[in-house]
Amino acid sequence: MSDKKNPNEVPDTGHLWDGNLRELTNQPPKWWMNTLYLSGLFVVVYLILYPAIPLLNGATKGILGWTQMKRLNETVVEIEKIRAPYENKLKGMSATAILADDELSNYAVRSAKVLFGDRCAGCHGTGGSGNPGYPVLADDDWLYGGNIDAIQQSIANGRNGMMPGFGTSLNEQQLDDLAQHMLALSKGSEHAAGKELFVSQGCIGCHGMDAKGMQMMGAANLTDAIWRFTPGTLESIKYTIKYGVNSPGAEETRNAEMPAFQQQLSETDVKKLAIYVHKLGGGQ
């Protein structure tokens, strides 16, 4: 048999709609009421145990004394305990030795990911993909060398290369010829007039007779079609030749400087960053 009540036997509120629609006073189901009571009990217990009620000069503390900052600090301590054995090993090892140890190098990469995001990604892009004016770190083209020692030295001591501007020593036609030669080199050919200027103006002193650059000087390889500042257009190349890079006294010069991190980071963090960059894909 059904335990439903006859609507005609249930008291109503006296409200009537459309002449025959009555508002009854049936009580909610017991399970629903019990859930409501339990919810209220949960709120009371929570208010007693945890900080919850805002006051003029703070908030109720709760008898457990729990705070988000306290929990954060506890979590940091727990993480540091896990990291400690690895960090202690890294301190006494060179970056080369760490790189040769799979377990430690994997730890260094995971640990340095946040360091790279905080310190490097703003210029070099996520994953070392590069930005205009900042080299790509995920390829095998390196201004100062891509072995682990060179990378570590770049991070620790910074880099501040310099190329003089030729705007005062060459006329517009000569600047255009030299830029044409640079563009041709990147495509595997040459520009006769520009090649003569490349030699006579001393470009070979830094970039080499074969124009492949010199890593000890940070001079770029001009034959690989990899451009640091903007895509290799004639106008962009001509601008760099005319005003130089970090050229003293030239307001229009290209600015290209990497800060030194040895005063900002620990020696271990520098090593971890070097390993991270080395493993991005282009480490030699």
Question: Can you put this structure into words, describing what you see?
Answer:
By secondary structure, the chain is mostly helical. Among the domains are: 103 residues, Cytochrome Bc1 Complex, Chain D, domain 2; 72 residues, Cytochrome Bc1 Complex, Chain D, domain 2 (Orthogonal Bundle), CATH 1.10.760. The chain is 46% helix and 5% strand. A two-stranded antiparallel ribbon has the order 1-2. A two-stranded antiparallel sheet has the order 3-4. Helix 7 crosses helix 8. The longest helix has 24 residues. The protein is elongated, with a radius of gyration of 35 Å.
Please name the defining characteristics of this protein.
single chain, 284 residues, mainly alpha, Cytochrome Bc1 Complex, Chain D, domain 2, elongated
At CATH level 2, the architecture of the domain at 75-159 and 261-278 is Orthogonal Bundle
The CATH first-level class of the domain at 75-159 and 261-278 comes to Mainly Alpha
Radius of gyration: 35 Å
Helix-strand pattern, N to C?
EEHEEHHHHHHHHHH
